[in-house]
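Archive entry. Fields below.
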Amino acid sequence: QVQLKESGPGLVQPSQTLSLTCTVSGFSLTSNSVHWVRQPPGKGLEWVGAIWSGGSTDYNSALKSRLSISRDTSKSQVFLKMNSLQTEDTAIYFCTSGTGPFAYWGQGTLVTVSS
Amino acid sequence: DIQMTQSPSLLSASVGDRVTLSCKASQNIYKYLNWYQQKLGEAPKLLIYYTNSLQTGIPSRFSGSGSGTDYTLTISSLQPEDVATYFCQQYNSWWTFGGGTKLELK
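PREDICTED_STRUCTURE:
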């Protein structure tokens, strides 16, 4: 069955770079897109960006200058890198799949930005 | 960017009640509207896609409707397991979520 799982550091210092990995199973990255969505503790959901089946990417315009999404299809992994982190980037980061409706989600990984 | 506004932000209802949650877009989203349920500590779960299509495995007490800028999620008979926060999401232009409606038992 389709599964997604996020991994990465739980704590990042301000101004540093966040690196997260989403490992997928049950589908191919060359046939399906993967999106990143984040949720500050106790708040709503924000679309972060996506990598499409062909490898192209789209980013939230508010984060675009700090964000990069890439993938390794041989390992079924998608990578998110966000630089110049600030405390407002503290959130649960989810990877999810779908082209509009997001039917499959990872469990999420909490990233805390703090010194 | 398209803004999504949900109301109310908090809703208290009793088991068996018919419950209606609202979502308003800042411009016409042509029915490209999804609903998600998120329970505490869990990832969101897709309930309804394209305004009124029920996701596989979701109970039929959930339904969606709307058009243009105004959309609703209805739970025909509230069950204890429906306590959660509900988010709408538009995907007509990129993807934006509403702020959520927290549904609790009275």
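CURATOR_NOTE: Chain A has a mean pLDDT of 96.
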